Amino acid sequence: MNEVLRCIECQQEYSIDRIRYSCDCGGLLAVERPLEKLKELQTSLFDQRCLSQKDVDVSGVWRFREGILSIPESEIVTHPEGNTRLYRRKALAHWSGIDDIAFKHEGENPTGSFKDRGMTLAVTQAKRLGANVVACASTGNTSAALAAYAAQAGLKSVVFLPDGKVAMGKLAQALGYGAQCLAITGSFDVAMAMVKDLAERGDVYLVNSLNPFRLEGQKSIIWEILQNLSWQAPDWIVVPGGNLGNTSAFGKALREAYDAGWISKLPRIASIQAEGANPFYKSYQQGLRSLDAMEPETVATAIRIGNPVNFHKAKRVIKDLNGVVEQVTDQEIIAAKLVIDRQGIGCEPASACSLAGAKKLRDQGIIKAHESVVGILTGHMLKDTDAVLQHSGRELEPIRANLEEISKKILN
Ligand SMILES: Cc1ncc(COP(=O)(O)O)c(C=O)c1O
Ligand SMILES: N[C@@H](CCOP(=O)(O)O)C(=O)O
């Protein structure tokens, strides 16, 4: 086995064959492998695998398996996932003021969000380590992904949801795929703390992004973008920030790709938070020394998170990649979502932070007119149909089944 778990604070090493979520010192753990192993990998290997029909090659995660988790292929639980599209539209370029802007639509994953890329790893690892019950706290998407992958692996899944705060599409998925769904009184952060305690007691295997294997899977979003761009890195990656798993995973993926020699420049990262759930943004304003947890409120329910568990990883990424943290208002989120939806692409509200944030950074001159940008659309439009119905500016118009009347109405 190439990989070990390493504490990001004190560097203590742990085996990946034992269940562990944090270091004895309290620090977060990251999966680490010798850089030499990555340097031995040629990007042409990943490109060749795109021609194969095998599930582990078709998967946009496991195609990169030597840099993700090197285990026997027979142990892998994959849908397969990934292979999401990169969209360019004149309207998005015009609205943001950035000519070279593309969006990677992670809503095209099997359960409709980027979480599948992390969950294939977390559930594979749960099975390898003999866990019986897999669990997460969730604003919705993690629960949908967990329920689906646990069903495939034949494991019991339990999800802890903030009562009344989860979009219906996501709740329906978790229920439909067969998870035990517990509605907790309190925010996502309360639910997260409870699952963490249960996991420390050994009752459940935790698959939130605190689990370092989740982030290894989410690295593939970046590696697949680089592959989509023929291994020419863009100037910027713009991503919504909630529990900060993606910000952390993206920084790791870019650093590894650069150090391995797969790309010749390091993009900057912009992590975009909702103004009502902005502890990372506030910390950034103060030099990223510490993070003050807050009571979150935003229309983007997926990122209604006030105490992001990956803060200490994400802050290192922002420093390492000369990144920025920005905030956008709910109004800006909805305006950006409308532009994306009207292009026939569509996304859930949290995802629209990428476009809203890119526009804001361009308006401020932080993103330059000539720079290339890839934004991440993290979740599918149908995840949150209430948001669509409330903000689309359209409504269902009742009409009699009469040709003249209908013709008059649509031609006027
Ligand atoms: C749709 C969507 N976008 C963005 C996020 C935020 O991602 P992260 O927690 O990795 O910062 C989440 C969940 O946290 C999500 O479900
Ligand atoms: N938006 C998330 C919140 C939990 O994030 P995770 O990446 O730590 O699992 C969700 O969909 O539940």
Automatic annotation (TrEMBL):
Residues carrying N6-(pyridoxal phosphate)lysine: K115
Molecular function, one GO term: L-serine ammonia-lyase activity
Highest taxon listed in the record's lineage: Bacteria
Domain Rhodanese as annotated: residue spans: 133-177
Keywords of the record: Amino-acid biosynthesis, Lyase, Pyridoxal phosphate, Threonine biosynthesis
Pathway stated in the Swiss-Prot or TrEMBL entry: Amino-acid biosynthesis; L-threonine biosynthesis; L-threonine from L-aspartate: step 5/5
Residues that bind pyridoxal 5'-phosphate: N141, G242, N243, L244, G245, N246, T378
Top-level EC class: lyase
Requisite cofactors: pyridoxal 5'-phosphate
InterPro entries associated with the record: Rhodanese-like_dom, Ser/Thr_Dehydratase, Ser/Thr_deHydtase_PyrdxlP-BS, Thr_synthase-like, Thr_Synthase_bac/arc, TrpB-like_PALP, TrpB-like_PALP_sf
Reaction equations catalysed: O-phospho-L-homoserine + H2O = L-threonine + phosphate
GO biological process: isoleucine biosynthetic process; L-serine catabolic process; L-threonine catabolic process; threonine biosynthetic process
Family annotation (NCBIfam families): thrC (TIGR00260)
Protein's UniProt name: Threonine synthase
Organism: Pseudobacteriovorax antillogorgiicola
Organism lineage: Bacteria, Pseudomonadati, Bdellovibrionota, Oligoflexia, Oligoflexales
